[in-house]
User: Which sequence fits this backbone?
């Protein structure tokens, strides 16, 4: 068959009469110098069959390569997921080992980390037995932790007492300030907003020095206030919240004004309910940030008794390794629970913070 | 009657007076909302920062003699400061690009047609929630000299590496950093990718552009703002790596892990006010420059893609 051949199928069913068709064929032949090939029904059917088979095969190949890519993607995602989960899962599993089992398994590790004490030397083996799964489920770590050594619970309480006021305080003050920045946009106010953002970006290495100075001047050094007060006034939440509040359509606010609402009404009845998810997300972010804090208590709290569990866990030495895993697990329970409950808020809050 | 007489000057004056009054009222109200925060920020951050600035030019906390830039010169030439700054910069220089790139790749992976995407996203976001202090034990088990990694390597006849006490420690800290921060960055990228106009991608697909080409010519221009945002957030977080270092190695890490925060902690414990304040100001200025450069670069690139 020639290159430009037109099969009768293409012009068969347009309702044209035989003469018209002949005429058309002639004109086409004239124009493009093509040859009309009349194919038998069987030949046509055969060719269609062939075309369908080719298309099928191509679709199959495409599907197969797609499936290979999906499999590779799944494999990669699974590997990353294992990497992400492994330390958490191992900590949880190890927290159910008995104290003795922990010591036999891991004392080699801890003796290479810290100076070995005489007590742990009896368990020392040159290579650690890295069993990931305990021989038998034991609650002895939790028993020791909860009933026999009150220090851990006390530190846990310290963490709670530091973090809760900071989160609540910063959210309240942050909402008020963000509303102000979102609604009142004059040039000088924008400059102030920018300096707030710069302050938000400052690392602890910079901000801890003024915090330390003022804590000394106010006489709150070595008290929880020296951490709580700067925490409450930190500008971290204002950036995200005011970004959110600026997205409230001004028509809402105009409508409320026409109905006689004052600014306070607009703030509490329109702004806050519309930013609920952002506020939850912010509270979660603040909670994990301060639950995790190490720098501030190290510098602002001299008394070991006042320090939160985050700092204390790092000072666990070889002799206490037996309960450390349970303590670690208890410490990660509150943020994990919050994550389970508030993941959608968190994801939405993070997502929106990146969009301009 | 006189009161009904039309006087354009009077009307204009009244209108201006009314507008001024309204503007003033607005200012009072919105400054009122800002006041609690502003007072706190002035008292705890901006105010003391000024004191820090003044003290950085003084001999010491007790001796207020003006010494010019002597403190700055001392800090700048200080061996410990130099190595701390070097380590922090090396770490940030490695960690920030990796955190951006890997998170972008993960986000692209989870934005494709992958079954169980949301489960993977949740799992990868999980490390962000876990306090460093809680998983430090497992990392120690992994990386200590007699730890798991060395044991596994031993099976393949590879010599033991002292992960935490050699230059390898940089790699360990890098892994910890990525473990914690990839999830957050990834979520940012996923939302940015889903905001790329679908029609453009479809038409490019019709035109026969393959996935790589589609990414570079369509998605990437839309992603630049997010890339910068993620970069800045990763930079901020890279300065917090001190937590991991401290919790893993205590007060005295190997030289490769001696970070700026370690230097500051030393200055705090020596009560060396002159060096402390000067170092804080130096870092503050460095931070402003870095962020400023990033902002300008973002504006430039953003304009390029719009044209």
Assistant:
């Amino acid at each position: 068959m020639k290159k430009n051949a037109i099969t009768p199928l293409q012009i068969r069913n347009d309702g044209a009469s035989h003469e018209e068709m002949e005429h058309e064929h002639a004109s086409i032949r004239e124009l493009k110098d093509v040859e009309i090939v009349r194919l038998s029904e069987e030949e046509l059917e055969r060719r269609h069959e062939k075309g369908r088979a080719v298309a099928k095969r191509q679709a199959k190949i495409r599907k197969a390569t797609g499936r290979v890519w999906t499999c590779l993607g799944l494999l990669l995602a699974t590997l990353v997921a294992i990497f992400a989960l492994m330390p958490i899962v191992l900590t949880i599993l190890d927290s159910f080992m008995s104290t003795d089992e922990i010591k036999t398994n891991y004392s080699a590790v801890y003796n290479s980390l810290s100076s070995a004490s005489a007590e742990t030397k009896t368990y020392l083996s040159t290579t650690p037995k890295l069993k990931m799964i305990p021989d038998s489920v034991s609650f002895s770590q939790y028993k020791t932790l909860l009933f026999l050594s009150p220090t851990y619970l006390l530190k846990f309480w310290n963490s709670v007492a530091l973090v809760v006021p900071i989160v609540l305080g910063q959210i309240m003050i942050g909402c008020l300030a963000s509303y102000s920045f979102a609604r009142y946009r004059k040039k000088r106010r924008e400059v102030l907003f920018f300096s707030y953002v710069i302050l938000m970006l400052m690392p602890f290495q910079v901000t801890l020095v003024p915090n330390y100075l003022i804590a000394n001047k106010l006489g709150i050094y070595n008290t929880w206030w020296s951490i709580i007060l700067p925490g409450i006034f930190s500008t971290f939440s204002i950036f995200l919240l005011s970004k959110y509040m600026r997205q409230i359509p001004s028509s809402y606010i105009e409508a409320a004004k026409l109905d006689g609402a004052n600014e306070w009404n607009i703030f509490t009845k329109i702004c806050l309910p519309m930013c609920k998810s952002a506020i939850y997300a912010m509270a979660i972010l603040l909670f994990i940030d301060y639950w995790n804090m190490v720098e501030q208590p190290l510098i602002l709290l001299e008394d070991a008794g006042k320090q939160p569990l985050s700092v204390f866990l790092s000072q666990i030495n070889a002799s206490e390794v037996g309960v450390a895993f349970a303590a670690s697990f208890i410490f990660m329970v509150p943020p994990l629970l919050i994550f389970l409950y508030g993941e959608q808020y968190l994801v939405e809050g993070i997502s929106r913070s990146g969009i301009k | 009657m006189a009161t009904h007489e039309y006087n354009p000057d009077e009307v204009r004056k009244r209108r201006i007076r009314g507008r001024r009054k309204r503007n003033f009222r607005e200012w009072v109200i919105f400054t009122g909302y800002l006041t609690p925060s502003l007072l706190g920020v002035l008292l705890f951050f901006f105010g003391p920062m000024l004191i820090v600035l003044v003290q950085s030019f003084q001999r010491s906390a007790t001796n207020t003699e003006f010494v010019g830039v002597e403190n700055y010169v001392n800090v700048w030439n200080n061996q410990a400061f130099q190595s701390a700054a070097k380590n922090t910069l090396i770490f940030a220089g490695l960690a920030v690009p990796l955190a951006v790139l890997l998170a972008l790749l993960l986000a692209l992976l989870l934005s494709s047609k992958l079954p169980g995407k949301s489960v993977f996203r949740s799992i990868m976001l999980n490390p962000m929630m876990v306090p460093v202090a809680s998983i430090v034990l497992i990392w120690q088990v992994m990386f200590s000299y007699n730890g798991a990694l060395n044991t596994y390597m031993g099976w393949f006849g590879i010599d033991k590496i002292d992960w935490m006490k050699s230059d390898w420690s940089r790699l360990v800290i890098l892994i910890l950093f990525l473990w914690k921060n990839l999830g957050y960055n990834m979520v940012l990228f996923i939302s940015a990718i889903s905001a790329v106009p679908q029609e453009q991608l479809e038409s490019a697909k019709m035109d026969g552009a393959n996935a790589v080409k589609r990414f570079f010519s369509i998605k990437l221009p839309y992603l630049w703002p997010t890339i910068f945002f993620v970069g800045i957030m990763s930079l901020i977080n890279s300065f917090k790596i001190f937590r991991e270092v401290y919790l893993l190695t205590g007060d005295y890490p190997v030289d490769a892990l001696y970070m700026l925060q370690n230097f500051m902690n030393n200055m705090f414990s020596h009560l060396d006010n002159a060096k402390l304040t000067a170092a804080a100001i130096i870092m503050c200025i460095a931070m402003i420059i870095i962020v400023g450069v990033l902002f300008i670069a973002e504006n430039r690139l953003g304009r390029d893609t719009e044209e």
Notes: Chain B has two domains: 2-55, 70-306. Residues 8-55 of chain B form the longest helix (48 residues). Chain B has a mean pLDDT of 86. The radius of gyration of chain B is 27 Å.
